[in-house]
Amino acid sequence: xxxxxxxxxxxxxxxxxxxxxxxxxxxxxxxxxxxxxxxxxxxxxxxxxxxxxxxxxxxxxxxxxxxxxxxxxxxxxxxxxxxxxxxxxxxxxxxxxxxxxxxxxxxxxxxxxxxxxxxxxxxxxxxxxxxxxxxxxx
Length: 138
Prior knowledge:
Elements: H1 5-9, H2 82-91, H3 108-120, H4 127-135
């Protein structure tokens, strides 16, 4: 084979490819990766409850969608209350969830959040989505 000794060694079988890891609890898939099945390291699945998920009513922290389509702010509905956001952040440490920007003259940072939300929610056509957009003053 033409070429230098170093170039020709590139085509020899590598001893690393024949290495088999012992003591690994996860099975190897056909592509050589490890599959994490039934391990405590796997993300926990949410328990299914018989009760349907509700967003309004006793113990829930969402604003009801207003019948009055001209309502603004919290009265417009379509979003979490401040109490709901506090509760969510308490249950999910490290969360950065914030309430809607509802003020007339928000700070530069809040104005940017509002602009971003309004751009993302432009195509929301459901009653709840429209209520959220009204609350954010989109």
